[in-house]
Every structure is written in structure tokens, then in C-alpha cells.
Amino acid sequence: MDRPVEPGHFSACEARLDKHIAGRCSVDFPVAVVLPAGGSGERTGLLTPKQFCTFLNRPLISYTIQTFERVPWIQSIVVVVAKESLDLMMDIIHRFHHRNVQVVHGGSTRHRSIFNGVRALSEGEGGTARVKPKVVIIHDAVRPFVEEDFLLKITMAAKEQGAAGAIRPLVSTVIATTLEGYLDHSLERTMYRASEMPQGFIYDVIYQAYQRCSESDFEFGTECLHLALQYCGTNAKLIEGPPTLWKVTYKRDLAAAESIVKETLSQSACVVTGGSAQATELANALQKSMSTLDMEVDVISDLMGDDAKSLSKEWNFIRVSVNSSCFSEVGKMLSALEEADRALLHPVVIIWVYLIGSEDGSSASEPMGGEPAAMMELATGAKLGNILVYGIQLHHSKEATLWGRSVEKVAQMSCALIRDRSPALTGQLLQA
Amino acid sequence: MDRPVEPGHFSACEARLDKHIAGRCSVDFPVAVVLPAGGSGERTGLLTPKQFCTFLNRPLISYTIQTFERVPWIQSIVVVVAKESLDLMMDIIHRFHHRNVQVVHGGSTRHRSIFNGVRALSEGEGGTARVKPKVVIIHDAVRPFVEEDFLLKITMAAKEQGAAGAIRPLVSTVIATTLEGYLDHSLERTMYRASEMPQGFIYDVIYQAYQRCSESDFEFGTECLHLALQYCGTNAKLIEGPPTLWKVTYKRDLAAAESIVKETLSQSACVVTGGSAQATELANALQKSMSTLDMEVDVISDLMGDDAKSLSKEWNFIRVSVNSSCFSEVGKMLSALEEADRALLHPVVIIWVYLIGSEDGSSASEPMGGEPAAMMELATGAKLGNILVYGIQLHHSKEATLWGRSVEKVAQMSCALIRDRSPALTGQLLQA
């Protein structure tokens, strides 16, 4: 199956495509990823471990897996989970069609879990040998927003140096405390960094480090780079990463992650006119109005033919109908999206904009009949497939100010519906 | 003016009222707060410094000021801002009716700004003397969620020890780097803490520390506790704070802060029935249904009389009307809320639930006339006053399953409208 490219925070990647292609070519060795996901998530204050917390109908860990799946030079992904989460993890992999993902049991500590994952990369089922990767990337399941170009940097540095890790400036001053709970001293902030993920290692380096390290390291240690230095003499290259590397730790971080994904999904929309002059005029006005609300709008006449590419890259569609309460246009769009499995990873929004009254005023106040009920029925079915359908009705006016205000209102509501993606409001026919 | 009590994350405080009263009594000395707010916010990736970024129609710094205003034993608040933000800050103070807030010019570094704020507490206008506080709390303008009981802990420890500060466990391993960008060593995570805000000082301690410290401290230092230790020999007591102390640093933190405030505002609602039996029945059904969606609902017949307290403590109102499309009930509610200035600090939601068709089926399908237009007009006016009005229409059914499904739908939509607080959707008459 072809997977849609993630838009938005990945569009920056697209703009750097040339660099990427160069990068891709230079990764001519096998690379694998280990994602420790055995944490209990006690710091979020939630019952569910944070990697399994869901937003926009998908668990956090699936977003992270998707991030690595999008990278063409990464061959395989090992997810390490606690025994009790195994079924849940298998279900997530199945549900969101993740490929090349192997699930491994975690150990009692972070290092034991990572070692299990690393080992699985060289051992097949039942302990048989398997072609091991040259470089292994270790990343947290709860850092969903790592970008390909940063993974490339870590991977290349790891290949050259044996080990590499992401760092970030310290946000707070770090202080040493006395046993009695008083200030002992504060650290010179410029000399220290926060060690983050991802980290990369030549496979043999991290494997040997784990084979050689002590029980105490396994029990209390937290830093893989430290093990590589202490047990293999490998001095890790440190690379400053972007703030998006942050770790989803608290409940508020889930809200932040959701808002990042929503923003990513809400940067553009595709308006389909069906080709009529009046619909095109409205679509062009909407395009102008929505661009002032920071939403980029493409106007096309049909989702088929040359414009079919919108189907595979866009998360938001607006269908303009003029004097026709027939839902077949929206229904066709829905079928096309369902057929392309477009809403597998993210909810897709369809807004049906229904313009009443033609320019010559011949049917200026066509009454609504069964539309609200039909609309609701259509939307209820679509929601089951992760497609959110809303309607907006507006009346044509020859009076320029009134008309401008109506268009402005449609634009505002469309942007709000796209950004909020509220499942409870699907099927509503709103008034502009 | 009486200010409404903030609900939600403060309700935990209310539950600890006894402890608080004890606490309040023990603060029998003057306490003041200095809020450095001169940062440029370059890390958020936004043009506006983060303390002035707005969510739910209010800048972040106003939330922080409000947090301190709610504490009865804090006498005065000094906000230190950059010269170019002075007008903006005065406007915020005026717009949100903040009291006892003095605005002071910042210096070129964090320490210089804080010292300006500290100095202002003992100097009146034009350098005249002023009764200085016993304890001064220093807090960041970008940490809006500090709770009263934690402020009390810091204040009492500062009074006893001379200095006290909030700490948090380190989220990441801290590492020392070599000049060439390689790992030097990693710190033993258990021995170190992140130094956070608030911090508290006996006034003379922090004042003298700043008078005695060097130009280099002023220029490059970041830690007030360090100055108190070095220049006054005052050893700060360190107290572990809750995760809500976190600092709004990146754009994603603004989304997290907004989600915390929204959640706080969306924990309960008040359903007003007007007293009719049928409305009361619907209200009770809604109460049951919304409680399964984690929303606590109070059913009352009128906002006046004994139930008037709902007006001053609730952020969400649902008005149930039966077979009456008259908006006077919603209008009256709106006037009462406007008169009480209830939407000054947070947007208030009113949902008008309009039940069509009586139990005996006498007017089962009363057609809608001018309601949508009247509803929109009412809502447009209300929005200017930060009150968000939405409508939901449902038809009575004698068929229990259908009826149950309609009520369930009203409950779901009400919860979604309350949680999303979308300004673009006010005035809409939705269908359940």
C-alpha cells in the first residue's frame, strides 16, 4: 500500500529534498531502530502508559513508528514493550498497517529493555543468526516528532565516531543538593547539556557495551553514551537537536503533541468546485479569505484526472455545491477517500459548502428539505471511517457587503472546523 | 469588585481549605512578589515575547498575575518589563482589572531586572522610602499555574531559612561536553535537581546579595539562590514542586497551557430549567449523560434566589427551553452574566437547548421560524463581551431508544462545545 506523505512539519523536509536525496544516497549501509516503550508513564498522572495514550484516534507510539517508517533508509524497527502491553502493541501495528516492525519483550530496567531490542536485531526467531545492521538508532517511543534530516546526522556521526547523541541546552539551572535538602552549588549552565534522544551507535559498539557492563549499570544506569565510553572507549559525538525532540512526559505534553499534529494537518485545504462558474467564484473568494487566516487553499474542479494528487496529499476538502442539495458530490468524494485509505493515520475533514440562490436571484430562498437528516446520516457513517463531514449553508446576495461577510464567515467556520476536528459536531449543517 | 474564584485546578485548593486557613493565619508578615517579564521569548519561535502571547483572549502574564492576586496574604506584585512593553503591560493591567500591580522597567539582564523589581518594593515614587516586605517571592511571568499551598511552603521556608527555592527532578540526563563537542562525562542524575521558580527570600537577604554581587554576576548569572549563598551566606532550603510549575518556553507550551485552562473551565456546567417538568426531566437526563463524559452538572430552576451562587462560580450554562422559541430566557441569563462581569477573565459558554414537541405529542414538529437569525444576532453581541452562545435543537420522542439517543447527542455536543470554546461557531443552532 502506498502511504500518504505527512504534510506540515514534514514539508520543511520536502523543501530540503535535494539535501535529502544526497543524504539518502550516502546511507549505503543497513540501519535499524530500537524504540524502548516499556515505561509505565507514572509521571503523566494517567493510568495508561504515555506511549499508548491516544489523540486524534491514534496512540502516541504509532506516530513515532510512522516517523521512522517514512525514512526510506531505515530497514527495520524493533519496539520493546512490557509483557502486559504485548497484545495492545500487536493490535496497534495491525490497526495502523505498520510494516517492518518487530515487537520484543522488555526487561526490568531501561538498559535491559534496550539490550533486548539490540539483541533481537542480530538474532532471528529462536536464536538463529540474522544480518545485523551497521548502525542502530535508539529513540524513545514518546518523542514522536524527530525529523529525517536529524536522524541522518545522528546516523552518519555514529557510523564515523562509533556513537552519537542528541543534546539540548538546559532549560533550568542545575543544582547540587546537600543530603539535608539545601543548596550545595549550582552548575555553570554553559558547560552542561541535556542528553536527549535519538542516539546512534555502530551495532557492535552498543552490543559489546551491553555485554561488558555491570549489573549495577543495568540496574541504575540511564545513559547509553556513557556505557559506550566506559566499556568500548567510544567517545560519542554530541549534536544539538531541535526543540521538537522533546519527550512526552506529562499530561500537558499530550495536549502539546496533539496541537502540533492538528496544526500540521490544518495548514492547507483543497476546494473542489465541480466546474460551475458560480462555485468557482465562491471558491476563489474563500481561497483569498482563508489565506488571511493562514490556511493555504487550492481550488480544483474535480478530484479526478490531473487533480487526483490532492487526494493523496491533502487532509482537508471543501466541496462547493450551488443550488443542489444532492449529496452525491460529497458522497463521491467520501468514497474516493475511503478507497484510498486516506484516513488511516489521521482524521480527514470534508466540508460541504452549500450555496443557495443563484446570481440572477431566481431561487433566492430555496427551502431546506431533508438535507439536515441526510447530511447527518452521511456523516455518521463517515465518522466510523475517521472522516469528519460538516456542512455550511450560505445564501447568495447581490449586495457586496453582505456577500463578503457571508464568505468571510464560511472561511472562519471552515478554518475552525478543520483546526478543531471535533467528532461531536460532524453532520451539522451550519449557517454562514 | 468581587472576583470569581477560579475553578478546577484550584478546586483542589478549596478541598484543603482548613489547611489553608491555618496557613493564612501563620503568614502574619508582609509578602510581595517580583515577576520578571522582560524576556524576548526567542525560544517560542514567535514574534511576541511569550509572556504576552494570548490564549482564550488573554495574555499569559495576566494568568500569572491572577494566580498571585487570588492569594490573600500577598500584598503587592511588581512586574518587571522591557521599556518597549510598558504600554502593553499597562493596557493588560487595565483591561483585566488587575490590582496592586506595580510596573517597573527591566534591566539588560535577568538579574538586573529582578534587582529593579526588588528595589521598587522599598522605594516609592521618586525614590522615597516605602514599607518593605518581610519576604519577597520571585517567580517567572511564564509559569502561570503555581498553587497557593506551594507559595505558602516557599514563603514560610524563606522566612525561616532566609532563602528557599522550588526544585524538580531532572527529566533528562545532564552531561558535560568537551570543547570539541564530545561526551566528557554524564552526571549522576540522583545527585542533581533542576532549579525552578518560585523562590522566596527574606527581603534584606536578596537586597544585600544584589548590592554586593559583582558585575559579572549581573551580566552572566542566572541563579538568585546562588547569590544569596555567596554574598550573604544564606543557605537556601530546596522544596520539590509539582510538575505544573513548568515554564512556558516553546510554542507547544502555549498549547499545553491553553489546554490546562480549558480543562479547568470545562469540569462542570449548570443546567437551568425554568421550572417546567419536561425541562427538568431533560435536564436530569443530561446530567446523567454528561457525568459519564466527566462533566459534573448542577440542575437548578432559576439563576436567581438561592441558586444565584452558580452565577459567580460556573463557567458554563445550559438553558433548556420547551416549545418556546423565545430568547428572553437566554437573554436574561446573558444580562445577568454581563452585569456580574463574569467573562472578564475567561470566556463563558451558554448553550440554549431547545426541545420541540411536548410529551403528549401536541406540537411534535413546530417549524423553526426566525430563530436561527435571532440566535445569530444574540450570539454576535454576546461574543463581543467574551460570552459564547450556541444552540442545540432536539425533537421530543415517545420512543425511548430514539429519545435516549437524542439526549446522548445533546450531551456529547454540549461537552464538545464547552471544551472547544470555538468563537467561530457561536450563534449556530445545531441538531441533536
TrEMBL record, chains A, B:
Family: Belongs to the IspD/TarI cytidylyltransferase family. IspD subfamily.
Reaction catalysed by this enzyme: D-ribose 5-phosphate + CTP + H(+) = CDP-D-ribose + diphosphate; D-ribitol 5-phosphate + CTP + H(+) = CDP-L-ribitol + diphosphate; D-ribulose 5-phosphate + CTP + H(+) = CDP-D-ribulose + diphosphate
One Pfam entry name: ISPD_C
Superkingdom, taxonomy of origin: Eukaryota
Subunit and interaction comment: Homodimer.
Compartment(s) of residence: Cytoplasm, Cytosol
Identification of the protein by name: D-ribitol-5-phosphate cytidylyltransferase
Role, per record: Cytidylyltransferase required for protein O-linked mannosylation. Catalyzes the formation of CDP-ribitol nucleotide sugar from D-ribitol 5-phosphate. CDP-ribitol is a substrate of FKTN during the biosynthesis of the phosphorylated O-mannosyl trisaccharide (N-acetylgalactosamine-beta-3-N-acetylglucosamine-beta-4-(phosphate-6-)mannose), a carbohydrate structure present in alpha-dystroglycan (DAG1), which is required for binding laminin G-like domain-containing extracellular proteins with high affinity.
A GO BP annotation: protein O-linked glycosylation via mannose
